[in-house]
Backbone:
């Protein structure tokens, strides 16, 4: 459920008409709803209430905006970060260092050091080599790094191949059949406090079975580790829960996920950790855009050219993803159209042959479910700027990320004298 609804014929974010935001901030612009973020955060937490003291870390990569992180920090969420930049954001948003988990397959020396110096709660180690490097840094630093070993369970998440992370051929984690020996060796390092295992098999999962299969394998690994005399007090189950991108689409609910987790992990005797991203932020944001013009070529449907493009919202071009597309002030008339951006690349297509609200030049429309993996994946391709972001709270709103003009990006470039 979200708070983007029609009121008096105009699409609102909570109590703010999107037409007002377009007038005051311009388009394209990402619009997030605080009430929706809070609702999703609470629904997810409530779904885990049967577990003992679960730790929930929002996957910052889904939406790293500081105001969004602050909303989630206020809800008691920690952060799952995958770079120094994300770590800095989580800290700036007021997340407690102890509630921050550092994931990622290629943490650099300076990123490992940054995490140690910040006193973060846990490193999710993705290889034996990374473990030794972190151990050395921690010893030099006179500290011990709390760690989980990320395992690759070789489970097909049955999602888009580019966001599947738990198959043997994917780059993530250590192979399950080598996990116990690696864990045992790393546990002997003075600089490491090996305390658990971590798993994350992919994103936008539409069924729970792959997760359940992966968790069962993790449960068996925990038993094996304890048999070998290793301590295991934590298990990080990652994120991955899918969200509906099409109105009416069915996805596993947080409640179904929570009860599956409770059932599978009943005898684990660990503190469970979670890293939800998309399920918290996805439906809490839209990308608001204006139609530049409609053009016809041949006999097919018209091309509706909007002012948002693949550089602002990459998912359709990158994953062939679907985003519902609705008019801000629908007339009731419908049309079939190709929805495209202005970028000089055929990949800059949001939808082909889409049945949608009738739109003409100047009309406003939204791409829904753009709150996760939206603004954060933007680029300045075609020398377009970076889109502004707005957070709505009831009947007020604030610009929470300025639009970065193409001219400002150009300002950061230099032509050396020797080019004449
Ligand atoms: C991306 C990612 C997540 C979040 O995935 P969602 O599908 O957005 O919930 C969690 N953990 C790790 C390690 C990730 O890479």
Residues:
């Amino acid at each position: 459920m979200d708070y983007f609804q029609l009121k008096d014929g105009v699409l609102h974010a909570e109590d703010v008409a999107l037409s007002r935001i377009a007038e005051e901030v311009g388009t394209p612009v990402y619009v997030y709803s605080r009430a929706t973020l809070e609702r999703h955060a609470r629904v997810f937490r409530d779904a885990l209430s049967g577990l003992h003291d679960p730790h929930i870390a929002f996957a910052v990569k889904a939406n790293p905006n500081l105001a969004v992180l602050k909303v989630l920090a206020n809800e008691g969420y920690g952060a799952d970060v995958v770079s120094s930049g994300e770590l800095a954001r989580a800290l700036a948003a007021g997340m407690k260092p102890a509630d921050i988990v550092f994931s990622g397959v290629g943490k650099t020396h300076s990123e490992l050091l940054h995490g140690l110096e910040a006193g973060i709660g846990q490193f999710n180690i993705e290889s034996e080599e990374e473990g030794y490097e972190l151990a050395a840094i921690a010893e030099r630093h006179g500290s011990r790094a709390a760690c989980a070993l990320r395992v690759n369970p070789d489970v097909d998440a049955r999602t888009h191949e580019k966001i599947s992370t738990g198959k043997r051929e994917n780059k993530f984690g250590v192979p399950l059949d080598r996990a116990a020996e690696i864990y045992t060796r790393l546990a002997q390092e003075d600089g490491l406090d090996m305390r658990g295992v971590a798993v994350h098999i992919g994103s936008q999962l539409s069924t729970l079975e792959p997760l359940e299969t992966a968790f069962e394998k993790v449960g068996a690994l925990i038993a094996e580790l304890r048999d070998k005399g290793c301590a295991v007090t934590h298990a990080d189950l990652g994120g991955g829960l899918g969200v509906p991108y099409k109105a009416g689409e069915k996805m596993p609910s947080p409640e179904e996920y929570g009860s599956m987790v409770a059932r599978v992990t009943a005898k684990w005797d660990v503190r469970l950790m979670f890293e939800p991203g998309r399920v918290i932020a996805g439906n809490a944001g839209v990308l608001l855009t204006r139609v530049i013009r409609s053009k016809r070529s041949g006999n097919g449907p018209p091309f509706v050219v909007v002012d948002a493009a693949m550089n602002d919202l990459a998912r359709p071009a990158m994953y062939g993803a679907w985003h519902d597309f609705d008019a801000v002030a629908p007339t009731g008339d419908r049309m079939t159209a190709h929805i495209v951006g202005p970028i000089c690349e055929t990949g800059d297509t949001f939808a082909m042959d889409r049945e949608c609200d009738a739109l003409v030049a100047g009309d406003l429309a939204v791409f829904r479910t753009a709150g996760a993996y939206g603004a954060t994946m933007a680029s300045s391709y075609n020398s377009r700027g970076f889109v502004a972001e707005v957070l709505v709270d009831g009947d007020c709103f604030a610009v929470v990320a300025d639009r970065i003009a193409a001219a400002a990006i150009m300002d950061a470039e230099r032509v050396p004298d020797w080019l004449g």
Observations:
- The longest strand covers residues 285-295.
- The chain has two domains: 4-31+282-410, 104-274.
